Amino acid sequence: MIVAGLWLAWAAGSRLSFETDIKAMLPQTTPDAVTRHALKQVDAILGRRSLYLIGAPDFATADSAAQAFIATLRASPAYADARFTHAPSHAEFAQLYGDAQRLLLTDRDRHQLEQRGAQAYADAEWQRLYSPEVLTRTQAFASDPLQLYGHYLAQLAPAGGALTARDGKFVLERDDGIDLLVSVTLADSPYRLDLQKEAIPPLRSAIDAARAVSPSVTLIGSGVLRRAAATSERIRLEIIVIGGLSLTGVLLVFMFCFRSPRPLLLVLLSLSAAMLVSLATVATVYGRIHIVALVFEACVVGLATDYSILLFSDRYRDAQPWNGRLGLRRIGRSIGVAMASMLLAYASFLVPASAGLRQMALLSISGLVAAYLTVVLIYPVLLGTPAPAAPAIAAWRDRLGRLRAPRRPTLALLFAAGGILLIVGGQRLRFIDDVRALRTEPPALLSEESLVRERLGTVTDTRFFLVEGRDIEALLQNEETLRGRLDVLLQRHVLGDYRALSQFVPSAQRQRDDAALLAKTVYADGSPLATLQARLGFPAQAFAQQQAAFEAARATHIDLATALNSPLGPRLRDLWLGKTGHGVASLVLIGGVADDGALSSAAAGLPDVRLIDRDADASQVLQHYRHLALFGLGGALLLIALLLTMRYGMGAGLRLMAVPFGSGLLTLATLGAFDVPATLFTVLALMLVVGLGVDNAVFLYENRDARPMALLATSIAALVSLFGFGLLSASATPFVHSLGLGVLLGTLYSWLLAVLVTAAPRQPSPAP
Amino acid sequence: MIAASLALALLAVAQSSALPTPVSPEAVFAHGTDAAHVARALATATVHPGDTQVFSGDFEQATHLRGLPKPLQARGSFLLIRDLGVIWHTTEPAASDLIMTRDALVQRSALGARVRTDTRRQPIVRSWTRVLPAILSLDVEQLARHFTMSLHEAADGGWQIGLRPREDIGATKAIVIAGHHELEHIELFEHGGDRVTLDLHDVSRSMLPADSTQRARFE
């Protein structure tokens, strides 16, 4: 124990940390290095960054509030950065494009020029120059006469142009005030509990600091951190509340049944040993413990109290003198068989290639072994000579002892009820694997998020396109093909926004094509532009100057390498993945997706474009692992059946097997009958149910000559399990609820089945 | 009756034929100041401009393009309604309407063709649909949101306000607005050397809400 404690202290101090991202339980779904790189970059962009809208009735107040917010976050090491978001200036664009700005066309302008030429542009320009609309130009007439470059810049405006850059800071106008945009970057993944612990208090202070500026200040944000932190906090609270209530329940049962603090202290010793050893083992092997594995482990360790209860209850076999060694001699074999069966069962979880499942198996196995060893090695020494059963307990034991196999009609009725339940429930049983459904986030934060989305028009999605090419030119061309399709989705309003490198840097091919189109439609002799200039009163050489400027622009070229090193580089580098094994790759980020199907079809038939949808992938993986876990469960049952038939012979072995097998099936059927969907976590719960079933069946069978005591022992054990697991089903976290409900039902069924299966045949006149 | 006489009293018809005090833009921008100072100066010189509900009159626009020997001349009338926006009705050289509201910029040709630009999607257009009405109603508080200001006051009661944008309003880098009892002249300087002037004549400013005929013009 002391060694394990020191070991855990070392492991905790040096490497133990908790992981709350459900997706971290799953294996890397994408073996391919490019995708991994892309996911990592997207995580850095989306996972670590959050966006806050700090609002006030006027700019000055919002600005002071935002500055207070930023200053507080910058002082914390949990944040890598907090800043106002800036719009790229015209000067930055001018620096990037230089003379080549004359060659840039939006898709819309390209299409118009191709279809109808430049006449409409020249006419509109003439009208504009004679009205105050001339003020809305972005460039001087001489450098952008038909405002084609102006259109190009407008389409690069972030958030679909909803933002205005005031004093270099992005602001969002509202009817009743103004919002300033602040971008915050975390130092590490928001799913790390230690980071959450470090990052949330400064965030709260920063929010308070912003609100302290004026009572009119509002603050809403989007981003993973607060949602992940809220989830961890809820899980932490549940662990405290459910764990606390469960412990209280267990304590009450113990005090009532065993009337002495000694068994209680011994059980606590066994629980601590199981907890310490299993945490230390996993901390040593993995470093990081997933919070779901921890919940699962808490159940298993609770299950380990079974061994203690069975041993203590042996005292109530009769009123003869008793000590721990005697008890162990009598029941050591049954808990040995039960533990061996459960180890076998959990060992089948070591096989699937999922770190999460393996963690669960490792936690359970090491915890069980530790609990078992405490019971067989330490209890006999420390148990002393407890008193025989108190009258109330003895009465309970004797009442249980009078339980016989039910009469035939009752049995038939039970069978019929079970059969109907299995059929009805089995037909209605649904499994869900959608991670989105398994993730619960506080409604207040979700509504904040949708408010941000509403105000900004779009928020970057977790899905994105991964585009590859054998070289930069091929990559940009592939992006352009994809963008052609995305533009259609934009027009249909099924997509809100996208961001791609080729928006900033067209492919060389496109630059050449556009230049050719412009030469033909805008800069040719006698073109609508030439006519417009003459009509406005420009001297003849003015158009010649336009032509010369265009020819000079044609000699230039915009290239990606220069762009990445320009002042706009940091924006572009988010999208650039660089060299890969077979060329280069980039990201196309999207936002405001209203039609999932349309999105996935956008990449169809484009071999170098892939839609990466981690939630869908993770759901698929959950499904995959649910299947694996079901197979594992099947394997475990077979192994246990083998062990039990070897030990007890074919007939008795198979009858005993009916307990774990039947309780598992009945649990699933009950969920189905009540229309509660089952998940991977239900299947994991079934692993516990199987363990309980084996415990009960083996113990009752091995101690059939002391059936009243055995029934008392299994009933106390079931009661203890119900206290713990029944409460888990009250959890608001869907997977914990799923787990708890599964175990709750399973415990009841397995007790019932074990009592039925091992019941002595009904005798004509049972002894009173 | 009191309201009507008040309206009459407040209905200021500026017939000033005097040109704005000729001071170079550089000189105007040399006197940087804050909104409160500008508001005080305007309150002394003009008639409660911040409370304007309706402002209308004629305008002459001259667009000076680099390389163009003569400026492009246009004229017409304008109508500002505080809670709606402003209509520029150009009569020469061709008839057209430009309607600027908070939500959209609509161009309507004499033949009825309409081109609508959504201000939510176009930051520069959005800025101008806020900036021009603020200039016309001499709403210093609004102007302070979009510009840093400077002020030059002349001995004859004339004033010139220099406005430098705090946000991207396109090619315009500086604006000078000038007048005596009323706003008379708006001059806009662009980065590329182009320049636009708007001279306002026969203006009338009302502190009473617009009537339904006036409002109907925005539809």
The secondary structure category of chain B is alpha+beta
Roughly what fraction of the amino acids of chain A lie in strands?
5-15%
Oligomer: heterodimer
What is the CA-based Rg of chain A, rounded?
35 Å
The total tally of domains of chain A equals 3
Question: Number of helical segments of chain B?
Answer: 6
- Give the total of beta strands of chain A: 13
Low-confidence stretches of chain B: 1-21
Gross morphology of chain B: globular
CATH superfamily of chain B: Lipoprotein localisation LolA/LolB/LppX
Unreliable stretches of chain A = none
Structure description:
The complex is a heterodimer of chains A (768) and B (219). Chain A has 768 residues and is of the alpha+beta class. Chain A has 3 domains: 2-87 and 161-228, 2-Layer Sandwich (Alpha-Beta Plaits), CATH 3.30.70; 89-155 and 509-556, no CATH class; 259-428 and 617-757, no CATH class. Helix content of chain A is 64%, strand content 10%. Chain A contains 30 helices and 13 strands. In chain A, the strands form 3 sheets. In chain A, strands 2, 3, 4, 5, 6 and 7 form a 6-stranded antiparallel beta sheet that branches. In chain A, strands 9, 10, 11, 12 and 13 form a 5-stranded antiparallel beta sheet that branches. In chain A, strands 1-8 form a two-stranded parallel sheet. In chain A, helix 12 runs antiparallel to helix 28. Chain A starts with a helix and ends in an 11-residue tail after the last helix. The mean pLDDT of chain A is 83. By secondary structure, chain B is an alpha+beta fold. Chain B has one domain: outer membrane lipoprotein receptor (LolB), chain A (Clam). Helix content of chain B is 23%, strand content 42%. Chain B has 6 helices and 13 strands. Chain B has helices at 2-10, 25-29, 35-45, 123-136, 140-146, 212-216; strands spanning 12-14, 32-33, 54-64, 72-81, 85-92, 96-101, 104-109, 114-118, 147-153, 159-165, 172-179, 183-190, 195-206. In chain B, strands 1, 2, 3, 4, 5, 6, 7, 8, 9, 10, 11, 12 and 13 form a 13-stranded antiparallel beta sheet that branches. The longest helix of chain B is centred in the middle third of the chain and has 14 residues, at 123-136. Chain B is globular and about 45 Å long. The relative contact order of chain B is 0.24. Classes of the chains: A alpha+beta (768), B alpha+beta (219). The A-B interface holds A 58-59, 87, 89-90, 124, 127-143, 150, 154, 157, 160-167, 173, 457, 536-539, 542, 545 and B 61, 63, 65-70, 72, 74, 88, 90, 93-94, 96, 98, 105, 107, 109, 115, 120-128, 132, 145-146, 166-172, 188, 190-194, 196, 198.
